[in-house]
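re: ur question from yesterday

yeah so i grabbed the chain u mentioned. its 152 aa long if i counted rite. heres the sequnce exactly as i have it in my notes:
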Amino acid sequence: MYLLKALYNLPKQYFRLYDDLQIPRIDNRLIVLRQLSKRNLLSNLSDDKHIKRIALALSQKPLYAWQEQNFAHISGLKYQDAIGLLVHHDKLERFIPQMKTWLEANLLIRNCENIQDYNTIDEIKENLIKIDEAWDMLVEKMEFSEEFQCHN
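ran it thru and got these structure tokens back, copy pasting raw so excuse formatting
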């Protein structure tokens, strides 16, 4: 009964997440589900692989615990950002201790596929123009000259 009530009117991502959670107690699974649905944290996730990664991480501990124990040092990090860190945790884990701000976290989340050859956030920042896909879009949309790009 509680499960039906908790899942009622939620998008399909929450059904998939609930099904993928590896938490034995139903009450604890419902707590995880409520934490995410209360803030609509899965609304931007449609990839089943991402849902599975979130479920695996949240089967270890709730999102609030991840936030307090693993991400507390990242200033301004919101729960939605924490979801992004968990989705790409395998690629970002080594950078998480170096992160200081939510801007750094978002930069790495957005470019997680392009940063695997780097060891530090400072190296990534030094090569930002080569790495950041948002920069490429901005250059294209704003039609920045080569000269402008070389000076920045």
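noticed a couple things. DSSP finds twelve helices and no strands in the chain. also The chain has one domain: 2-118.
anyway ttyl
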